[in-house]
Structures are given as C-alpha cells and as structure tokens.
Amino acid sequence: MVDLHGHLLPGIDDGAKDLAQALNMARQAVADGIVISVLTPHHLNGVYRNPARHVREQCANFCSELRSHGIALDVRPGSECHLVPELPAALAEGSALTIADRKRAVLVELPVHSVPLGATSILEDILAMGLRPLIAHPERNGELIATTEKLAEWIEMGCLAQVTAQSCTGQFGPQIQDAARRMVCAGLVQVMASDAHRDRRRIPQLSRGRDVVAQWTSPDVARLLTEDIPRGLADGQDVDADQVRGALPARGRGFAGWLRRLRAGSGAALEDSQRS
Ligand SMILES: [Fe+2]
Q1: DSSP character at residue 74
Q2: How far does residue 266's CA lie from ligand 1's centre (Å)?
Q3: pTM metric for this prediction
C-alpha cells in the first residue's frame, strides 16, 4: 500500500516528537504493508511553516536513518498545505511542496469546522496551474459532514479527496465514520491515507481502514484507494477519478447517480430517495 499523508518527520510539526518515535512509526508502516510513505508536515496553517527546501532536506536525512536502521520504507517529500489565499502563489514559486515533489497533485487541508469563503476559487487557481488538489480528510470537516454537495462540486471540477483510515474504522466517532462511509459509497473519495501523527493511536496503518472500505463497497475499490491511485500520484501520474465510481457495486453506482441527478436538480432523485 501507499500512504500519501503522514507526519513522520520528527520535530517539525505536531507529528513525531523525535527520531526514535519516527523510526517506530516507519516500522509500524512496514508491518502494516505500506511500502511508500509521503511525508507531509503542515504548511501555512498559521502555526507551522515548512518550506519545500527544508522538507526535502529533512526527508533525505530521514531516508538515511531508515537505511542505517534497516527499515525498508520508501519515503518521499510532501506537505499538507492549508487552504489559504497565498497557497497558489506558494506553489508557483516552489515554496510549497506537491505530493512526492512530482508537481502533479497537492495535499490540501481545510479548517476543522467550516469551508472558508473563496475556497472554490483557490482550488480553481490550483487546477489552472495543472495541479490536482487532493482534499485531506473531508469527512472531518464540520460543513462537509453536514452536506457532501460542496465536495461533489469540487470532485466534478477535477479535485480528488482523501479519507483517513481511522475515520473509516470509527476511531474518530460515529459521526465522522458515517460521513466517511457516505463519501466513499458515493464515489467521492479516491485515496485512503493514515494521517499518522504518533506511534500510538494515530499510527501509520491502512489495513484496517482498507478492510472496512472493502465491506462498504468492494475489494476492488479498497485496492484503488490504498494501492493503485496513491501509487500513481506518488509516481507523478494523472488519475482518472471515474475509475472509483466504475468499481463501485451497483448499489453504490446508483447512489452516485442519485447524487448527480440531485446536483442537476432533478425531481427524479427525490422520488428515488422516497422509494429507498
Ligand atoms: Fe495531516
């Protein structure tokens, strides 16, 4: 599996406290079947600024430590960029890192409770630069929990979405788990990641979340979210978001169609909902 979101780099944000913990997290990732981890310290969130050059250096140092400790984890630099008006400029000048430094997609974090004014416009600017925003854990944003309409609009624009494995397993509570299930089953999610912060509780683990998604949908969808699509992004390839919708079981495809009709304002969607 490939994990596109994790705070393993020690001492530069609210993730791993020190090198020993970071190495422990890397061992946990390998034990779980993760072969590539993109290291994504927070950037531009009002607390942490981790410019690209610094993250590249830290990633190279950590890679050396992994080798000297015999830990077979392929680590690549990235960042979790807060969705702020200056983000497109930071990407253009190269001070904000794209996923695996491949200049194909960028991990974008929303505030916890709301969707900021102008969010869609910032995402459009990033898309116009040829970069695909990967929306980090929409199932944990209060406004997107209440309605998936905004997320559906962004996916239609060309954005991608990343669900967190522990949201799917219920470790953040039933409300977030339910939001994760609705988004995954509607075909609105293309990537699962760990968003690991520690070697206890918020650990780099995807296998349990993958198994939950396989039950909600199918093993094919679970594989797309944890292997095929994140590997493509880590290697700088483009992603066809429709392949997830195509792999959904018939019931899920029906729900995705229901959402599309609802967005189009079709009364048929409401009639469908009254039947089910
Ligand atoms: Fe994160």
Answers
A1: E
A2: 37
A3: 0.90
